[in-house]
Amino acid sequence: MIILIAAMAENRALGKDNQLLWHLPDDFKRFKQLTSGHYIVMGRKTFESLPGKLPNRTHVIISRQTDYQADGCLTAASLEQALKLVPHEEDVFIIGGGEIYAQALPIADIIELTRVHTRVQADTFFPEINLNEWQLTHQEQHAQDEKHAFDFSFETYLRKA
Fold first, then answer.
1. Which has the least CB within 10 A, 30, 57, 125, 130?
2. Positive or negative, the Cα torsion across 89, 34, 137, 10?
3. Is 9 exposed, middle or buried (0-12, 13-18, 19+ CB in 10 A)?
4. Please, which residues have CB within 8 angstroms of residue 103's CB and are 6 or more apart in sequence?
5. Is 114:7 a contact under the CB 8 Å cutoff?
6. The pTM is what?
7. Exposed, middle or buried by CB within 10 Å (0-12, 13-18, 19+), for 146?
8. Which residues pair with 20 in a beta bridge?
9. What is the pLDDT of residues 33-76, one digit of tens each?
10. Stretch (H or E) spanning 26
């Protein structure tokens, strides 16, 4: 299965200046729970925005720089090449950024989305989800609290047959 996992605002905003736009501890916990033990595919800028290599995951970094290397990570020149590095029986999570999501959306099986109920300025966006192609199968609301500056929802979409 190819699974896109992202947190986006109501205006599909993902990030600005290679930074996340919010701090949602429950979203981080869900991301860790879902992706641990799996392959994660990302663009180079997304990888460089991380605090380091994420534990218990196999990192595949897509870069146009032919000599790009990152310790303990696999590298690929394209999404197609990156997916060939993942064993066929393994689920793979696409974790960003915007360009990689746009390339992966047509071939994805599942979208695990955290919808942050706000609109923010951004320079990176999640692609439009065509609801004729996707079915919302799970939605879980979370209210703003002392640790979360915004209301948000966990949503799972499955590609329609």
1. 130
2. negative
3. buried
4. 79
5. yes
6. 0.95
7. exposed
8. 15
9. 999 999 999 999 999 999 999 999 999 999 999 899 999 999 99
10. helix 25-35
Q: Is the separation of the CB atoms in 60 and 86 below 8 Å?
A: yes
Q: What is the DSSP string of 36-86?
A: TTSEEEEEHHHHHHSSSPPTTSEEEEE-S-TT---TT-EEESSHHHHHHTS
* pLDDT, position 7: 98
**Counting Cβ atoms within 10 Å, is residue 138 exposed (0-12), middle (13-18) or buried (19+)?**
exposed
Which residue type, as a one-letter code, is found at position 24?
Answer: L
Which residue type, as a one-letter code, is found at position 93? F
d(CA 21, CA 13): 8
| Distant-in-sequence, close-in-space partners of 121: CB < 8 Å, separation ≥ 6 | 13, 16
Element (H, E) at 130: none
pLDDT > 90: percent of the chain: 97
